């Protein structure tokens, strides 16, 4: 048997050919980090992104990378890792085998909620945290991008949910109005 036929990759490419040129993505990316000893602070760490266009021209872009420290209160562990400014904090942590709390991954719940101790992050897609809580330093790791070196502390999901919605549910038990219920049931 020919070596080309025996290699599994070649078998796959013969069955599934590459898409035509007009359907290939415009850019292909690869990330390279500068050596740590050439930097003065962790904020100077840059991810080097090489972008190649369809015509073969290569461009080099430097993406700032920041040190993120997560104090996981529930597990009693502190995680430190580096995250490029254009990457979600949770996704980068997972790519480095760091387990952090999460649920929806879309910024809609409070499972990955943290309180910012120092630093800044952007979270334009954080629907699960109100503007009021954001101003008090709460953030969601699943849709958060670091803007500087960052230190955060995980929060209890129920605690953040209460802070977010407690004023709506804290009015005490609702009195049951059987007459209104009968009227409503009669309409159906």
Automatic annotation (TrEMBL):
It is found in: Plastid, Chloroplast. GO terms for molecular function: 2 iron, 2 sulfur cluster binding; metal ion binding. PROSITE patterns: 2FE2S_FER_2. Keywords: 2Fe-2S, Electron transport, Iron, Iron-sulfur, Metal-binding, Transport. The keyword Calcium does not apply. CDD domains: fer2. Coiled coil: none annotated. Its main location: plastid. It comes from the Eukaryota. It holds the Pfam family Fer2. The keyword Ribonucleoprotein does not apply. One of its GO terms (cellular component) is chloroplast. Its cofactor is [2Fe-2S] cluster. Residues 66-158 form the 2Fe-2S ferredoxin-type domain. Belongs to the 2Fe2S plant-type ferredoxin family. This is Ferredoxin isoform X1.
């Amino acid at each position: 048997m020919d070596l080309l036929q025996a290699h599994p990759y070649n078998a796959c490419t013969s069955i599934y050919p590459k898409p035509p040129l007009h359907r290939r993505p415009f850019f292909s990316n690869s990330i390279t980090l500068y050596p740590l000893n050439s930097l003065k602070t962790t904020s100077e760490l840059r991810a080097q992104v090489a972008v190649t266009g369809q015509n073969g021209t290569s461009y080099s872009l430097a993406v700032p990378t920041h040190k993120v420290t997560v104090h996981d209160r529930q597990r009693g562990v502190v995680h430190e890792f580096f995250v490029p400014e254009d990457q979600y904090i949770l996704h980068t942590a997972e790519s480095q085998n760091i387990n952090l709390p999460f649920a929806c991954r879309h910024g809609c719940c409070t499972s990955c909620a943290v309180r910012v101790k120092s630093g800044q992050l952007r979270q334009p897609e954080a629907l699960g945290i109100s503007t009021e809580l954001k101003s008090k330093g709460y953030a969601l790791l699943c849709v958060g991008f670091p803007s500087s070196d960052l230190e955060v502390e995980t929060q209890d999901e129920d605690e953040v949910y209460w802070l977010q919605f407690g004023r709506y549910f804290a009015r005490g038990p609702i009195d049951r109005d059987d007459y209104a219920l009968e009227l409503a049931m009669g309409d159906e």
